[in-house]
Design brief:
disordered C terminus, 2% strand, 18 helices, mainly alpha, two-stranded antiparallel sheet
């Protein structure tokens, strides 16, 4: 059914981009693009269109754009802010593409920050290892990084809903610069206790910075996606999250390589990345982006979320705990120590972790197209989350058995056998974990309410940070104190990871599925091409209900 050219939906009663402010060109019914140049007329206001209406006005928009560009050739001083404003207004005049402008700006800022987030982890970890710190010492440093994330995600969600995403984004970049400045002051002459306390404070600030910045990257996908377009939402969430993780992996390698040259040089390079991200956040975003209606923003509502958001948040605690029980601290220590049968250099260790994160990010980016769509599970439901989460327990259980029950690892073992089994099984976990993360990231923004998305996603990622903190602390204890060798300790970490994965799987079972026709064996039936719901590009067309259980009749109504 066709749609009329106007500011609303089919009947003109509903804006096409629900939950987006009308004052910054990201989904209001109308946007007038001011040129910002004295004596130059503003570009005429153009209504915001749904995606299939853009073609109908392309010719008109093209003429307007040419006229505006000619008039704007007046000679004057044009800084970054001027061009960013003009570009934003140009985007806004082109309907749905205008809604994507904040997505582009926030993605650039978020991804630049992410490189530094991965790099600083490797810089701190490898510098501490070289200075004789134990896995337990480093686990304490990093656990406060995660603890800060728990508090920050709650606060950032509330502040983002009140003050907008731009504020939280700039705050995150600033706090990260302060954290890097502290690391410049870390002295090798200090006692171990002094170093642990000092670096822990710095890592705590980095944890605050990461989650302030991440909030924008996660919530903007909801703000630029029309209600009911669940397949498109899934792809956007997977894209930004996947590329974030890929660049974080690049940061891991960059950090390991730079710290091998010089500790202070590595920190200086990271400061440069943060400075490069500032102009995008300052000049490219509106202060209104992501704000909720004032009466809806209350601290008490942080703990009054929908049932599915609470259940998914609990599952996320155990999902990320299963990874960080062995990844963040035990794995790099294990790879570096000759007693494991491997004994790699800092650069090789960093490369292994970097490739893991990059593969994880790319698989997550392409999960909708290359994994779930061929398996006829896109967009995913509760049962897809349930079965995929259960699959995580397989590679960790096998590798744990090899560590504790065979002679594949340890002094005198074949390094080829140790490296091969470790690589195959951990990278299998990597792929499965990426699919799980993509499914969870999609489900949380699907369940979230449009004008409260920043607040509700903040609560969800507080649970994410809580899981990482739990995994990091427990991994330090298991790796350091279980058994007589590091092989025993690493094996214990992997078996603990297996148990935690199964707990996450169990929690997923308690989600309330709102997709019509979803069944326990549905994901397998779809793989086998047994009768399923008709496939379509938008979940709304297949009768997928929204977070409140309301099922749209067809995609034209949203």
């Amino acid at each position: 059914m066709g749609r009329g050219i106007g500011s609303g939906g089919l009947d003109g009663s509903q804006p096409p981009f629900s939950g987006q402010p009308a004052t910054h060109g990201v989904g209001g019914p109308e946007r007038s693009a001011s040129s910002g140049v004295p004596g130059v007329p503003a570009v005429p206001a153009v209504p915001a269109f749904a995606d299939d209406d853009v073609d109908a006005v392309d010719a008109v928009d093209a003429v307007d754009a040419v006229d505006a560009s000619k008039k704007l050739s007046v000679k004057q001083s044009r800084g970054f802010g001027y061009y960013a404003s003009f570009l934003r207004d140009g985007f806004a005049s082109r309907g749905e593409s205008g809604a994507l402008f904040p997505f582009v700006i926030i993605s650039i800022t978020y991804l630049l920050f992410t490189i530094t987030d991965g790099a600083v982890r490797m810089i701190v970890l490898l510098h501490a290892y070289n200075n004789g710190f134990s896995a337990m010492d480093v686990a304490v440093m990093f656990s406060f990084y995660e603890l800060a994330g728990v508090v920050t995600n709650l606060a950032a969600g509330l502040l983002g809903a009140r003050w907008g995403i731009k504020t939280t984004l700039i705050s995150g970049l600033t706090v990260q610069l302060v954290a890097f400045g502290m690391l410049f002051g870390w002295q090798e002459s200090w006692t171990k206790v002094e170093s642990i306390v000092y670096v822990t404070v710095s890592q705590t600030l980095s944890g605050v910075a990461k989650d302030l910045t991440k909030l924008g990257g996660k919530t903007v996908t909801k703000l630029v996606t029309p209600e009911g377009r669940n397949s498109r939402l899934f792809k956007l969430v997977s894209l930004i999250t996947g590329f974030k993780n890929s660049l974080k992996g690049a940061g891991y390698f960059m950090g390991a390589a730079l710290v091998s040259v010089n500790y202070y040089l590595s920190l200086g390079v990271l400061c440069g990345f943060i400075v490069a991200a500032y102009p995008f956040a300052i000049f490219g975003l509106s202060n209104e982006l992501g704000r909720a209606r004032k009466e809806n923003v209350k601290f008490s509502q942080l703990f009054k979320n929908k049932y599915n958001i609470n259940v998914l948040s609990l599952s996320r605690v155990f999902l990320f705990g299963s990874r960080d029980l062995w990844f963040e601290v035990p794995l790099p220590f294990f790879l570096r120590d000759p007693a494991s049968g491997i004994g790699w250099s800092r650069t090789l260790t960093g490369a292994f972790l970097a490739i893991f994160i990059i593969v994880y990010g790319q698989v997550q980016s392409w999960t909708p197209q290359l994994v779930l769509r061929p398996l006829r599970q896109s967009p995913p439901d509760k049962y897809a989350a349930f079965w995929w989460c259960g699959s995580l327990s397989v590679p960790t259980a096998i590798l744990g058995g090899l560590l504790l029950g065979t002679g594949v690892f340890g002094v005198g073992s074949s390094s080829a056998g140790a490296i091969t089994s470790l690589t195959v099984l951990l990278y299998t976990f990597c792929v499965l974990f990426a699919v799980n993360s993509a499914i969870h990231s999609y489900l949380i923004v699907r369940y979230a309410e449009g004008d409260k998305v920043a607040m509700q996603v903040g609560v969800y990622y507080a649970s994410n940070a809580l899981g990482r903190m739990m995994g990091t602390l427990l991994s330090g204890v298991l790796y350091t104190y279980v058994g007589g060798t590091i092989v025993d300790g690493f094996g214990a970490c992997l078996f603990a990871s297996t148990a935690v994965s199964l707990i996450s799987m169990t929690v997923d079972w308690f989600l309330r599925e709102d997709q019509r026709g979803a069944t326990l064996w549905g994901p397998f039936n779809r793989c086998l091409c047994l009768p399923v719901l008709p496939e379509c590009d938008d979940a709304g067309e297949a009768g997928v209900a929204d977070a409140d259980g309301n099922t749209p009749k067809n995609s034209d109504t949203v």
